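Quick question, first post here. What does this chain look like in 3D?
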Amino acid sequence: MATLLFVVGGCADALSVAPLVHAASAAGHRARLVHLGDAAAIEAARAFGLPAPAIALGLAASRSLAATAATRLLALAELHTVDLVLACGHGAGAVAAMQFADALELPRVQLDAGVRDHGDTAAERRRKMLDAGASLRLCGHELQRLELLRERHDFGSIAVIGSLAHAGALAVTGASAATTSCVGLALEHPAANAALRQTIHDCLAPPGLPIQDLGPAALEPLAALRQARLLLTDSHGWQELAAAFAIPCVTIGDRTGKPETVECGGNRLTSARREELAQAIDLALAAPAVRSPYALDAPAAALAAIAAFLAPRTAPAAPAATTTALPGDGDWTGRLLGAAELERVGRAIRSGTLNSTKGTFVTRFEQDFAARMGRKHAIACASGSAAVHVAIAALRLQAGDEVITTPITDMGALTPILYEGGVPVFADVDPVTLNVTVDTLRRQRTARTRAIVVTHLFGRCCDMAPITGWANEHGLRVIEDCAQSFLAEDRGRIAGTQSHLATFSLQQGKHMTTGEGGVVTTDDPQLARAVFLAVNKAWGYGDRDPDHYFPALNYRLTELQGAVALAQLDKLAWVVQRRGDVATALTRRLAAIPGLQLPEDPVGGRHTYWKYAFLVDPDVIHGGALELGKRMRARGVACVPRYIQKPAFECRLFQLWRQSPVSALPLSCNDRGRTDGPLFQRADYPGAVRALERVVVLPINELWQQQHLDQVASVIEQEARVLAHA
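> Answer (accepted):
Ran it through. Tokens below.
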């Protein structure tokens, strides 16, 4: 069994440490307890069930308390041989424990790790410092674990154990049902909050509930909390206890380090303004019953984590290669979202205007985006699919008109054509770039062709000069689908500037994101007006006699998304540059592998790498893209062989097109609808078929680092060489 040194600074620490000390002793460990305070502080801690400390330093509170305590501890030789140093919270006791453990190079456990309210405060910096140097970090909730992972702490050094404070409070107050006779008030600095206290009294006058001032954590306040119908506080610790006991809570402040208390429905954040505070109190009192977010037996879970940490480690004869989780654009690991977005979203919320017709953020974003993309007009909308839809709507198709597009695309870029009465017609693609060409487009033109949608796939532009020349010759409107190609270049021209209309997506995985969202750009004021109307239910905002001029939907972006979009636009150039750097480094590593054809910049242009798509020659690498991709995924390298499982024209809606009026009605006005069955045949698309059979799509992003590149390149190289000899 181990010798565990517990360092306690104050009553709040004691409440959490007490149940763990008892559990450790019961499990056979030797628990050594050090208390920094004087006799009065020790007596208060014993009210929480904390045993008498083996060592009482008897120090009074001061600025140098932690350093003085650490010095005193280091002078005690009998403490130098402990197996583990443990401390709770982020006060003087935890800092003293850190300094003591660091000086003797002892492992340290940080209890209540991962608490982050993201404020620019000394307390927040201290929390990060204490967590950073710990050997083992024990969190109260999964949300604290995620904070530590976001800070790149080792996955194996973090464990979620539940609320030790709840276990301590439960031990001293009992498990009996509580009455709801008062409102608890716990402010960290009560002397400085006289005006706030008066506001709280005024807000609680109508419900007629008496206020119980809880003061600092002690036995009597804990008992009073158990009887409270509602808690008002600005303290993380009291928020945790209220949630643990399923007592509604109102937190006075704009952030919390215990977000699980909000997620479970038990905690409402509010400003100190009387109107907001009164509303938060009313909502809390009227809310349904709260469920505790802490389901674990915290002392038992903590001991299990400590036992696993202390267990003897026998090194394997040949250490296995380590695998680093790759940053992915589905969450924080691969998305550059942070303080800039939060600041703008905060301003949008404080403005009270979240609708873009009356707000300012979406309008500003449209202006800035148009300027950045080199166009005169930009109109934001709800999604990339909505962007394609309103761009098609601006063309005013007649029923049965044809729009030529690519068979390698998202369905959100195809169904808008049908919804506007058009018929999608598919052009084959170049089997290397997976993009349409002027030759493949030319072969699909008929007397009914009115427009073409040119998709710049993966971040590489199509060869636009011949395409636009041919389209202009035949009076065809051109739409560039730039969802994957922000700031890509074709012979010095930015993607989206060689067409009548260009569409962009702000979906989660794109170069810039608002979760969902889209933008349409154009230089034509009449097309811009048509797109704007299509986004806004065709209502003529600002017209002398406005009306709904044609059938259209509400595709507006919200002010919250506009605020995020503005912050993301500021980062776009850096994101594109970083992805290019990652792709260049990866190409350099993979260039010597036989059987791979790697992506590259077009002549005179720039690839911006939404994804890194490379081709696999099955004549060299046995099993081709499917087998190599399967092996890559088995070794932790996320990838998508084939990109899409089949060309779009083989999807059911184009096979059974008579089953829906959305597809049947346009085709009833087109000669293609004279017969049943599939509209297009695989044999006519050898380029698309070959490309999908050979492509592997690797989801690189701007937050990949050298270790990720090394890992991925190593896996691809090893597996490709194995398959090359199969």
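The domain at 176-286 is CATH 3.40.50.2000 (Rossmann fold).
Residues 401 and 422 are 5 Å apart (CA to CA).
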